[in-house]
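Minutes, project huddle
Topic: does the predicted pose make sense with adenosine-5'-diphosphate bound?
PN asked that the exact inputs be recorded in the minutes so nobody has to dig through chat later. Recorded below.
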Amino acid sequence: MSLLFDNVSYNYPGSTHGLHDVSLDVRTGELVAVIGPSGSGKSTLLKLVAGLETGHTGRIMLGGEDMSRTPVHQRHIGMVFQSYALFPHLSVLDNVAYGLKLRKVATAERRKRAQELLDIVGLGEFSQRAVAQLSGGQQQRVALARALAIDPRALLLDEPLSALDASVRGHLRDQIRSIQQRFNATTLLVTHDQEEALVMADRVAMLKDGRLLQIATPREIYENPASRAVAEFVGLSTILPAKVASPGRLDLGFAELFAETGSRSFGTPVHVLVRPEHIQPDPAPNAMNRLAGRTGAQRYLGALTRYDFEVQGAPKPFLAESPAPANEAIAVAPEHLRLLDH
Ligand code: ADP
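Predicted holo structure (tokens), as shared on screen:
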């Protein structure tokens, strides 16, 4: 079932904080990750879908139906939070069956359904355990099974992995994604972890100050960020001020580079974005966009070294990644210089 935000605005009572004119759609079976700095409105977006905050303007439509006046318990939405929010005194099975009990599904039927879901999340043999006897990662899988048990119209995941160890997180990320796809569940995932967003999502929506800055595929948002704010938030980069010097030429103050300037006219101020993997170490002496300088701080990452490359006169070093750091020069191909308009 699709989920649509149509010009949604919401202010917390007595404040100007909340959401401003947010329009976005989550297609049936799609996972949209919502990212943004703390306080950007991510949780508010989820709370409005769930009906935990009310009084917005604009429309929130689920399967073509306006949810604005539908009470929480009739929205039929599955939720998984950072805190597992399970009932510690109930068995694993009863936790998963809980939503079905509320919906007055007969005992035998709800036990069967709960057991099926536990099998799917790989916890079939734990059904009679107390929740407290499970690890954090297992508890989060119980929470996912519980959310899916009611056959929800949409699934809301609020930082579901952030309380877990890094080792568990990576594995659970893949599991959640594959279960979400298997159920074709229309899903909003809130995360502060941009890597998690890029790995898990069909599309990524970036919020800042309650506004939607961009919604696009992980590749698109990384390679073609719509603004400086998005570029700075997603992935590592070097961002420098520049001006269009002539068609196809950029003036960075300390150097002139070839770049795809499009229809921008002479003197147009822009920011230029370079991703670390697009910096070529020690290019040929006559290479295009060659910049001489020296390597500063280095961080050894195993397969790659991440390093600062200092170019004389540049306001800050270039952040680069390659198997070995540059000795005396770097180059960036024109097609790898992204221009961000002011
Ligand atoms: P995020 O989830 O991205 O960290 P939130 O959606 O929680 O952001 O918050 C968005 C904005 O609304 C923030 O400025 C926050 O301080 C404010 N806010 C959140 N909850 C409340 C509340 N209950 N009352 C007043 N302001 C709130």
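Observations noted during the meeting:
- The pocket of adenosine-5'-diphosphate is lined by residues 12, 15, 17-18, 36, 38-44 (CB under 6 Å).
- Residues 236-340 form one domain.
No decisions taken; revisit at the next huddle.
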